[in-house]
Amino acid sequence: MWTHTPWQGRFLPHPLPPGERLRAYATWCNAVEGNTTFYATPAKSTVESWAGQTGPEFRFVLKLPKPITHERRLSGADDQLRSFLETVEPLGPRTHALWIQLPGSFGPADLGALAGFLRGLPRSHRYAVEVRHRAFFDDPRAAGLLERVLAGVGAEWIPFDTVTLFESPPTSDAERDAWTKKPRVPRRSSALTDRPIIRYLGRDSVERTVEGWRHWVDVAAGWLREGRSPTVFVHTPDNADALMLARRFHDEVRALLPELEPLPEPMSAEPESSELTLF
């Protein structure tokens, strides 16, 4: 995500060599979603570069590869899982959680497979599960069964809040695309562990995105007061303003909790120096 083209030259310096792009991003935000790992397990040298560009307090929430979660549906994927875990090892404490995003067809009848998979995972990592099957949101019994499976191994349930996106018809190409791809499920805001993770998707309008996250500002502040350490990811359909919005969200939480540490001073997108000449 730190290579998102609309950010280059606007929020982040451009051009930057690949080995410096995450370092620049980390001056804006202290966490990142590792979505690319869903499509391919990176080379270990790439992961070593990520570790070298970030401090030990930086948070990676890395998505398990698609062959494990969607193709094999958590069964018979030992080799792929072992390879992935070995590859991300250089991140050390930066691996805040491994993110198990399940397909929309993965429903209550599949909870046995999820329970067995989670029990077999090494305890050296934290795990967080994102479900998209509507039954987990509409059926209290299904939700309760899922919560018990997760609580049994100390795993978190990641809500993906798309309520603001679907409040009214889309008004941009990016919003129209999101309408066809993102899950339309009710908002859920209960934490199971001391490290809750929120994924919030707003609109391409800054004002509507900010209006839609008011609920999460209060929730995040409440979790912090309880001693939890939440991680909140702010998205819009085009993500053009996501860096600025993430910092604004943090500022709004900090307005309720002044003792919350500020984010680092962001790196300027402008060159450090330039020479002016007549010719």
The CATH C-level name of the largest domain is Alpha Beta
Number of domains: 2
At CATH level 2, the architecture of the largest domain is Alpha-Beta Barrel
| CATH-defined topology of the largest domain | TIM Barrel
Report the oligomer. Answer: single chain
Number of helices: 11
What class do helices, strands and sheet pairing give?
alpha/beta
**What amount of the residues lies in strands?**
5-15%
Protein name: DUF72 domain-containing protein
Organism: Planotetraspora thailandica
Pfam family, one: DUF72
Give an account of the 3D structure.
The longest helix is centred in the last third of the chain and has 15 residues, at 242-256. The chain is an alpha/beta fold. The N and C termini lie far apart (39 Å). Helices cover 37% and strands 12% of the residues. It has two domains: 1-158, Protein of unknown function UPF0759 (TIM Barrel), CATH 3.20.20; 159-258, no CATH class. The protein has a five-stranded parallel beta sheet with strand order 1-2-3-4-5, with helices on one face. A three-stranded parallel beta sheet has the order 6-7-8. It comes from Planotetraspora thailandica. This is DUF72 domain-containing protein. InterPro entries: DUF72, UPF0759_sf.
